[in-house]
Amino acid sequence: MTTNTQAGTGPVWDWSAGHGPVTGALSATTGAFALATTGAATGMPPGWALAAGTAGAVGHAIAGVRVRNMGRTIATRAASWLVGAGWTTWAMITGPLTWAALGSLATIGIGIGAAARSSALWEEARELEAIAADERQVAAELSAERRAIAAEWVDRIQRVCGITLRVLAVEMWPTGTGFTIDAELPPGGTTYDKIAGQASQLSADARLPHGCTAIASQGIHQGRVLIDVTTVNVLVEERTYPSNYGPLSLYTGIPWGYRTNAAEICVYLREQCALVVGPTGSGKTNMVHVILAGFARTTDVLTWVIDLNAGSAGLPWVRPALNANGGFVEDLQPGVDWLASTHDEALLMLNTALAVGHHRKVAYQDLMAERNTDQLPISAKIPQIMLVIDEGAEILTSTDRKLKELAKKILEVIRMLRAMGIRTVLTALGATGSVLGNLMIRREAKTRVCLTGGEVEGMDLGKVFPGVRGLKVDQAPYKGAGFMGTPESPAGLFKNWRILPNQIRDIVAATTDLHPQLDKVSRQAAGIAYATRWDADRTAWMRDGAHSPVDNDRQEPGSAGGLKLSALRDGQPPTGSPRADEDALARKFMEQIDAKFGTAPEPGGESEQPSAGQGLNLSALRAEDNESAGGPAWLTEAVDAIESAGAMGMKPSAVADLVGRSRQAVRDALKAAAERGELVYRDNGPHSVYVHPDHA
Description:
The chain is of the alpha/beta class. The protein has four domains: 2-132, no CATH class; 163-230, no CATH class; 273-537, P-loop containing nucleotide triphosphate hydrolases (Rossmann fold); 566-598 and 615-695, Arc Repressor Mutant, subunit A. Helices cover 43% and strands 13% of the residues. It has 22 helices and 18 strands. It has helices spanning 21-42, 47-66, 71-94, 99-161, 193-196, 199-205, 284-296, 315-318, 343-363, 365-371, 392-397, 401-416, 433-436, 439-444, 461-464, 501-510, 520-531, 536-543, 578-597, 635-644, 652-659, 663-675; strands spanning 2-6, 10-14, 166-172, 178-184, 214-218, 224-230, 254-259, 264-267, 274-277, 301-306, 338-340, 384-389, 422-428, 447-451, 481-485, 492-495, 680-682, 689-691. The strands form four sheets. It has a ten-stranded mixed β-sheet with strand order 8-7-16-15-14-9-13-12-10-11. A four-stranded antiparallel β-sheet has the order 3-4-6-5. It has a two-stranded antiparallel sheet with strand order 1-2. It is elongated.
């Protein structure tokens, strides 16, 4: 028996514990003494004790044989029973309470303990030897297999590459899908590139299954090479996103897929941007969802998504949390922190990101000095902002005026805000020179993914992974498969998990409590644009599709909505632009209407109601609101919002988004309010704002 000490309860007997040499000897001697004393007092026949001891010896001998104990152990236990029974018989005859009886019993106990300890050591040694023998047998078999693999590949590399290697080790992958050869290159300046360039030939010579490769990479130093040989094609099967939705961190890595050895591949994006390339049908949209799932699980990341294709990449992560009234479902938050589907909303998001990053540079100087670092310490209290921009690489190469404006902002974020914890994930449809020609993308996006899906056109792997040899599109012909490289892991085959819509809903629900909040300093810089990002009027299109996410002044031909007049647009477009041409046509159209039907009377004229036959009423050209002496009715709301923004103030465009009016009308009303002294205009070029007098 052994005792366990528990805090506050004292020693507790463990009756299930087995006997050791000491407790076994103590139990045997005390039992014999108790039996001898009781038998002597009651007149029990002494032969009974001897018979009981003999039966115990025989029983233990049989049990020892059944469990295959050593003969030494069986003999020790049988002898202990017989000696104990003999002493008990003698003590019952002569009396157990004499010094001779007690001394002899103590001597017997010591002998039993020593014999038990000796037999236990012999049993332990025999067991260890048996285990070692099994291990030696397995090692011998494995060593033979490894020696055969080493000899086979030394011969193969000599035959295909003309290089004689000395194999130092062969490591079998735990997943059973391949092995890694660690070899020493021959003297004379031979590098691993000569083997890496012959990957396809080596794979063919080894008769590897389709999707399996033999990829050479750098060893522990430049005279060593590692050759990863895949023998089981794990890319052909579809695996769903792991059901473990536990918390992650930027610093511990975010899983984006798995290698051919079935091991997860993680990305570390504290300082790096990422680029995901994939043509239509390659699984790029699914990859974006895998990326958003990882960010949703990360406790120190806020995800902002820009998708000008109706916001389709981010909608599945928002809709489960939205209710029909414009708010959120109770105890549920969107899987992304902000979603932009239009040019104006995307521009607002990028401007907000720039404002947050520049403000962090100033506001967190003391914190960075305290931590002795030139990078903002990212944590759940000061989260990193990850901008996921679907087809963002195409935005950077577009010649459209509005997209060029977005491209400028994206490059500014990439270039200036690394230290302040704002990074980007861009996607692209093809690995072409026009997409990857931007030096900023190549320099900052060191985490790169190229999904092929078997597509050959526009898939120049050499541009995505410069300097990496042996990569071919036909190695990854499966949807969701391709190549991935990070600063921590060289470019190689990988596949991402299939993530289903019901999993997205589950992840949104499971990660609601994991999402961090934007820190106070950043919220101050983000202002009203960030604070109202989930307002009902800005999310109506997400709930029921009643409000089109397409910009008002970019309505597609043939779409519903009736006559489109340029008087409702903001400002005057530049001469010669498509928008200016549209405005000219609209003016000619109005002139023709005026000549044919006459114009509608302006407010304040002789008659407020047009008479019959008076013509078409083009009231869109009038002022948007019937202004009183103090300005339009919505001006009060705008002034309150500007006051809430503090010393940062608000741009007219932000006010226009807030009150739902055209920018020109908002500019005129704000200018009039400034002339009346209700606001103060702070002229700073494109960053000009209106400030409340209390904060001017």
